[in-house]
Amino acid sequence: MRQWFRSGTPWIWLTAAAVSASLIMVIGLVSLIAIRGLGYFWPNEVLDIQYRNADRHTVRIIGERYDDERVSASRLRESGVDLTTNADQIGRYLIKTGNRDVGGLDFRWLIEPDIATIERPGDVAVIERREWGNLYGFLIALKQGGQVVAEGDQAWPALAQRLDRARDLFAQIRAVQKDAMGEVNYGLEKLRLRERLQEIRGENDPERRLEIVAQRQELEARYADLEQRLVGLSEAIARDSIVVQTADGAIVEVPLAKTVRIFRPNSMGLTGKIAHYLEKLSEFVSDDPREANTEGGIFPAIFGTVLMVIIMSVIVTPFGVIAAVYLREYARQGVVTRLVRIAVNNLAGVPAIVYGVFGLGFFVYFVGGGIDQWMFPESLPAPTFGTPGILWASLTLAILTLPVVIVATEEGLARIPRSIREGSLALGATKAETLWRTVLPMASPAMMTGLILAVARAAGEVAPLMLVGVVKLAPSMPLDGDFPFLHLDRKFMHLGFHIYDVGFQSPNVEAARPLVYATALLLVLVILVLNLAAIAIRNRLREKYRSLES
User: Fold this and answer.
1) Residues 85 and 180 grouped into a single domain
2) Residue 444 belongs to what domain range?
3) Which of 69, 201, 233, 431 has its CA 20 to 30 A from that of 539?
4) 288 by DSSP, 3-state: which?
5) How far is 451 from 445, CA to CA, in rounded Å?
6) Mean pLDDT throughout 83-95?
């Protein structure tokens, strides 16, 4: 046994077991997130339940079964529930009843002994609305201009075409409001700032003033035309509506303008459910959020996360490489250099929130405030760069991940044989040429390794971003069609902060819980794609320079 331990075999098996356990835990965690997240988009059956309430009266409840659990009867009795059974364990179900504008709450716990009957009617409808969440009920009639045009089952054939029309009009309204009117407002604000700058400088050029006045009149006329178009679109989209009867018999009229989709999950076949699933999944990754981030998509968060990581990578890579090259190739290897390396290694262990405080104080208030005083005095006291934005968030994360890039690049430079440097110098190359043409290309795989580690950490950081640029909802994205196209001063959305906001700050926790899993899975996939792209580049560089290393 002693000889077996001395051979090192137990430690090999222990290492393999530890790696296997880690892989199993990672795969299990990702699988749990995937099952909980991706299952959210599948159309669940809608149950029609006859239930005895606390007054022992039978009420009708319509909704989706969201969750179930078994709890002790004593726990339910302590919470004031009057049980009619002597069982020790009672099953209860979480039902999403929707209709928040009618009943106030859209989730309800039902205990199993008080459920009289459960049915699955084929004609029950789920109406996804842009406000107030889902509405569950039975379609009574379809109206046009306040007049009934179809009733009951006859309303369904005409509903799909009218709903497509309403969606198209809604997309046109959003394009006018967000794009066309936003562009005009952006131009008007630029003209206002030009006037303000002339006043600050004391300039009184009549030609420039007349030019600004003419441009403003042109923009205002364009805005008036857009308003007229918006009025026409609003009147057109308000034409159609549906009448729905809820579980308690209430009659609700829902304009199609406020409706995302209408479907009957109990009567859908497998093909219809798959089509619905793909449509919801596509909406999730390509649409804007709604209902306090608990409905709709998360495209702005995906875009903000990827853009921030790209900007951070562009900033941290050259600075990290330059620092590593200086420490390894130029700095005298003495006490000061060793202290610098120790400081770099210690920076990697500083809590992320400390970097956020530093970024807020130095980048936002000091550097950004100075830029505003120097370059944007016409905007003051409203800040331009003296407020959190994507540039400061990227710089903060660049400092946070800088030690990783420095250490990885230094390790790559140290692995290059000294004979390669001496051979290049012997052939007449200068030290700078040797470094640029020979050493750095051979060390590029190590640089990419540092970048991969930096991306993996930066993409998942949340705490510093809360101080230097990330927001719950961004009115406009940092990249758009307005000059200069990339607006580094704008705030942005981030997948990590979106998970925190939806999971812990949402007014409707139960509705938001599946979105937390779905967003977490998407964040993992985004980080994986970014890392795989960097790994592919690193492997290609490694193969290219392997012959030189040998």
Assistant:
1) no
2) 303-495
3) 431
4) coil
5) 10
6) 79
